[in-house]
Amino acid sequence: MPWFNQFCSHVINRPADPVARKRMRQQASVFLISAGVSLMLLTGGAYRWMHQEQERLIALQRSLVTETSATSTGPQDVTVLSIPKIKLEAAILENTTKKSLLLAPGHVEKTAWPGDAGNSVIAGHRDTFFRRLNELQNGDEILVTRGHRRFHYLVSSKTIVSPSDVSVTLPAADARLTLVTCYPTYYIGPAPKRLIVVATLQHIPENAPQGLFAKTSSSLPATP
């Protein structure tokens, strides 16, 4: 930013006159306060937009449950991710563009849909939706709702990898959910690692209410 470099150079090479130095300090204070207020307004606006979009998507999901058949489930339905342990409930958007990740966790294109066989990969920002993802441990519950159907996962592993390790997005023979976020979660600046939480789809309980759980193959493995 040339303007910022010029400003810093002007401050460093400030004049010796006390009045001029005082004026420079006042200008610097006004500039820093204005920049801070602008940043707070931009951040607040982004969070407000995110919450409004989440409310809209979750309301849409509930309306689809009311209006559609319990047997219809597909990518056109709104998908909601719930993790009770960390008090997370968020609608998922398809793709991981900067805009979509600002509004919601993003389903990585060309990976399986949650509830289907294969590896379903969902990415989210560490400073919003996935800020508490590092608290999850093996056996913790993750729920995914699509239309009338709810899919029950249990966390089976948690690892830290480099950003270049794309093996976590590869297809899988079982039905799993892979959650991805930057790590360390509370790192200042671009985080150097990726936190990977893998959860395995569970069998449907025999006494589950009809229409609540998706029908899955009996060959799906239980949590290791």
Q: What's the structural blueprint in terms of helices and strands?
A:
Elements: H1 2-12, H2 18-67, E1 79-83, E2 88-94, H3 98-103, E3 106-107, E4 118-123, E5 141-146, E6 149-161, E7 175-183, E8 193-201
Parallel strand pairs: 2-3, 4-7
Antiparallel strand pairs: 1-2, 1-5, 3-4, 5-6, 6-8, 7-8
Structural notes for this entry:
By secondary structure, the protein is of the alpha+beta class. The chain folds into two domains: 1-67, no CATH class; 70-201, Sortase, Chain: A. It is built from three helices and eight strands; from the N terminus they run H-H-E-E-H-E-E-E-E-E-E. It has helices spanning 2-12, 18-67, 98-103, and strands at residues 79-83, 88-94, 106-107, 118-123, 141-146, 149-161, 175-183, 193-201. It has an eight-stranded mixed β-barrel with strand order 1-2-3-4-7-8-6-5. A hairpin with a 2-residue loop joins strand 5 and strand 6 (149-161). The longest helix is centred in the N-terminal third of the chain and has 50 residues, at 18-67. The model is unreliable at 68-75 and 204-224 (pLDDT under 50).
Structural class: alpha+beta
In the CATH hierarchy, the architecture of the largest domain is: Beta Barrel
How widely separated are the two ends?
52 Å
H-E string = HHEEHEEEEEE
DSSP, total strands: 8
